[in-house]
């Protein structure tokens, strides 16, 4: 009897070790290549189509690098920091991102990353405290399409700020409006490796400049855009350069024509 009891105890002990090892070796939950957010979602959900998350920040942690976040319906999806290649695509509806006293979207991804933002309504609330709508610190390519960026009007804020230091970044903006910011787009990378290509977009009532390029090596290319209500449509500082295809439209600031440097 004692021998049988010892054998059974040894057997149960073995099962216990196997169970413990099984728990230790259990794989982490895989990230999805496509996730979803909804205005009535919940960030405890897996961000699937039938169980969506509520915020971009909640969804991005469950989305694999190179994956895509989609919006099921219009909603306010909150600020987010992007640290990998990803697409946030919310057309045909527009997804709101409200920011007060901070940046709405920070992109600090690897130097070979590609980030696409489409169909976003990014609002700094025009309260004089919000920083930038999209602040680009690191990535290879950032593409912003069919979006609105407005109300980022603190002293140094920009609708888009390309502030990438020594990392080379190419920002492409298409069919996007910039309204009521201090600067619509500013390319101010300290290492002189930032560039912005701006196509078919609209700038209105940005209080300092529509587009600012500052620092040797930084550049902008503008084509097919409309500039209204800003003291400077294009401001070049400290060696920043810009190219224009000559098909941009310039409106008025109050009763005076805008200052365009050096294209005027």
Keywords:
Pectate Lyase C-like, 264 residues, mainly beta, 24 strands, 2 helices, 2 domains, 8-stranded parallel sheet
Gist of the model:
Helix content is 11%, strand content 41%. It is mainly beta and 264 residues long.
Protein described:
The radius of gyration is 24 Å and the shape is globular. The longest helix has 24 residues, at 2-25. The termini are far apart. It folds into 2 domains: 32-67, no CATH class; 74-254, 3 Solenoid (Pectate Lyase C-like), CATH 2.160.20. The chain has helices at 2-25, 56-60; strands at residues 32-37, 63-71, 80-82, 86-89, 95-98, 105-108, 114-118, 120-123, 134-138, 141-145, 148-150, 158-162, 169-174, 177-179, 183-187, 194-199, 202-204, 209-214, 219-223, 226-228, 232-237, 241-244, 249-250, 259-260. The chain has 2 helices and 24 strands. Residues 1-9, 11-28 and 254-259 have low confidence and may be disordered. The chain is mainly β and 264 residues long. The strands form 3 sheets. The protein has a 9-stranded parallel sheet with strand order 1-2-4-7-10-13-16-19-22.
């Amino acid at each position: 009897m004692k021998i049988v009891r010892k054998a059974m105890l040894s057997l149960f002990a073995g099962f216990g070790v196997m169970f413990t090892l099984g728990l230790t070796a259990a794989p982490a939950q895989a990230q999805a290549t496509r996730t979803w957010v909804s205005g009535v979602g919940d960030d405890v959900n897996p961000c699937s189509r039938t169980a969506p998350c509520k915020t971009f920040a909640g969804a991005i942690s469950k989305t694999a690098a190179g994956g895509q976040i989609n919006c099921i319906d219009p909603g306010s999806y909150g600020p987010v920091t992007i640290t990998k290649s990803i697409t946030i695509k919310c057309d045909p509806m527009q997804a709101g991102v409200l920011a007060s006293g901070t940046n709405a979207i920070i992109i600090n991804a690897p130097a070979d990353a590609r980030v696409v933002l489409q169909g976003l309504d990014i609002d700094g609330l025009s309260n004089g405290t919000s920083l930038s709508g999209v602040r680009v610190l690191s990535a290879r390519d950032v593409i912003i399409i069919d979006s609105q960026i407005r109300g980022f009007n603190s002293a140094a804020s920009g609708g888009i700020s390309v502030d990438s230091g020594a990392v080379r970044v190419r920002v492409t903006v298409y069919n996007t409006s910039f309204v009521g910011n201090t600067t619509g787009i500013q390319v101010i990378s300290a290492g002189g490796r930032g560039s912005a290509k701006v196509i078919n977009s609209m700038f209105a009532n940005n209080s300092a400049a529509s587009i600012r390029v500052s620092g040797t090596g930084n550049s902008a290319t503008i084509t097919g855009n409309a500039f209204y209500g800003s003291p400077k449509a294009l401001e070049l500082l400290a060696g920043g350069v810009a190219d224009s295809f000559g098909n941009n439209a310039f409106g008025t600031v109050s009763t005076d024509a805008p200052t365009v440097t050096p294209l005027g």
